[in-house]
Each structure stands twice: as C-alpha cells, then as structure tokens.
Design a protein that fits this description.
Blueprint (H helix, E strand, L loop, with lengths): L1 H5 L8 H8 L3 H17 L3 E6 L5 E6 L3 H15 L5 E2 L3 E2 L2 H4 L2 H15 L6 E5 L3 H12 L3 E4 L10 E8 L4 E8 L8 E9 L3 H12 L3 E11 L10 E11 L4 E6 L1 H5 L1
Parallel strand pairs: 5-6, 5-9, 9-10, 10-11
Antiparallel strand pairs: 1-2, 3-4, 7-8, 11-12
Helix pairs in contact: 2-3, 6-7
C-alpha cells in the first residue's frame, strides 16, 4: 500500500480500491493508512491526506522536511561551486546534475511542495534543459507536463507562437505550443532550470495568455543575483548564482533565502 501511494503522488485512492486489492475490510485498511501516515510524518517523507465525500479517499503528498531540504540544497551548492564547472563565457556547467535521476527527484519534490497550495493543473517549461526538472515536479504534483518548443513541429498540428527576447542573448526568439495542448481557463506552473533576466519565463507567461491560462507560479532551480530586477516577478528559485569568474576561477552560489528561513 505504501509503495502504491508513494508512486502516485497526489492521486486519490479510495478505501474500496485497497479493500478490493488486498481482500481486506475497510476498517483494516483505515488502520493501515494511519500507520503509514504516522511513519511518513515521523521520517519527514510526506503526508497522507484524507479526502471526504462520495469521491473521497486518501492521497500521498510529498513534503520536504525543512532541515533536510536546507542540507540538500547546501550540498548541491557546494558541488556546483567546483571551479572545474566554469565554462568559456562565464557559464556554469550543471547538466550532469539536472539529468541525474536522484537529484531530479529531490529537486522536483522541493519545487512541488512549494507550489502545492497553488494547485496547478499542469506544469509548463520550454525545451530542452528545463524538461527533466519539469517532469519530476509534475510527477510530485500529480499533473501533466507541457513543453513549449522553439521550432514548431508539423506533427503537432496547429500552433500558437509568440516572439520574445531572451535576456541572456538579447536576441528575438520564437516559442510555440500546439493549440490542443492546453485547456482554456486552467492553471499553469512555470518551471525552468535557470533564470538570468527572466526573458524566457516572461515569454511563457505571454504564451499562456494566448490560451487564457492563469499562472499559478514560477519556479527555477537557479536564478542569477544580477540583474536584480527581472522581467517577471514573484518567482521562486532554489539557489542564487552570485558570480562565475573565469579570471579568478571562482563560483559563488548560495541557497535562496527562503530555503534557510522556512
């Protein structure tokens, strides 16, 4: 039962489902659920929420323990501050971490826990590096993922496209989504791996407006300290990149303030 619940975050299972599966009385299932919930809470692994009503049941909600979350992000910062990660042009190499499943699971759970109360209907990102993080965040939230493309594919049918300015390159780029990918009136959580000036995030916000979709929040793994004024507001980042100095062979990266405070 624990495996089923933890493998399907935010998905509702009725007592009848488990009663039929294990050939047990509902009262026995309730006792088992109580034991599982106490164990999850004791080890800071999450919580089981009871849903009342005709379609009610129980669902697993991944939660990130504050101290464990802070320790993990600090260790991630230490790993990313290795001078060997400095790339020509002052860029930071982090693809190995963003494509490592064990890190993606943790990062996705932390981001999902932060935006759980905003109740997004889907997670949206832009290809390509943001996709793995978006998938794991959506998994923890129990919702689907939509990836905006930079080059429209004819196999996706009619597209809605916008032009936006990428803050890092200061160049005009195109972002598109298939018309049938999103339902009008739904809520979207924007997730990306990196934010500098916020141009890409702003592009996604503008694209979502074309679908008449509300933005539930914006989450990124790393945001740069400068420029301090981004093209989007109310975003949440796990880490803040202060500096990447090729000359001094130094990287300054720290957890975001809310990681240490909460």
């Amino acid at each position: 039962m624990t495996r089923i619940l933890c493998s399907h975050p935010n998905q509702i299972f009725t007592l009848h489902d488990f009663s039929e599966l294990f050939q047990s009385a509902k009262s026995t299932v309730c006792e088992d659920i109580a034991i599982i919930r106490d164990t999850l809470l004791e080890f800071g692994l999450g919580d089981l929420e009871s849903i009342t009503g005709a379609g009610g049941g129980v669902r697993f909600i991944p939660l990130a323990d504050n101290r464990d979350r802070a320790d993990y992000i600090h260790k991630l910062c230490t790993t990313l501050c290795d001078p060997n990660r400095i790339l020509p042009g002052g860029y930071l190499y982090m693809s190995d971490l963003l494509y490592e499943p064990k890190h993606l699971c943790r990062i996705g759970e932390i981001l999902a826990a932060e935006f759980l109360s905003s109740k997004p209907d889907f997670v949206i990102t832009v290809e390509t590096k943001g996709i793995p993080v978006a998938i794991m965040t959506a998994f923890a939230l129990g919702c689907p993922v939509v990836a905006a493309g930079r080059d429209g594919q004819i196999t996706e049918g009619p597209l809605v496209s916008i032009n936006y300015v990428a803050s890092s390159s200061r160049r005009m780029q195109t972002m598109s989504l298939p018309k049938r990918a999103i339902k009008e009136g739904s809520r979207a959580l924007i997730i990306d791996d990196f934010m500098k000036g916020g141009g890409t995030a702003r592009g996604m916000v503008q694209l979502l407006k074309e679908f008449k979709v509300d933005v539930a929040g914006i989450g990124v793994v790393i945001a740069t300290r400068e420029p301090r004024v981004k093209l989007v507001s109310n975003y949440t980042s796990l880490m803040v990149l202060e500096e990447v100095s090729e000359k001094e062979n130094r990287i300054r990266l720290s957890p975001s303030e809310w990681i240490a405070v909460n």
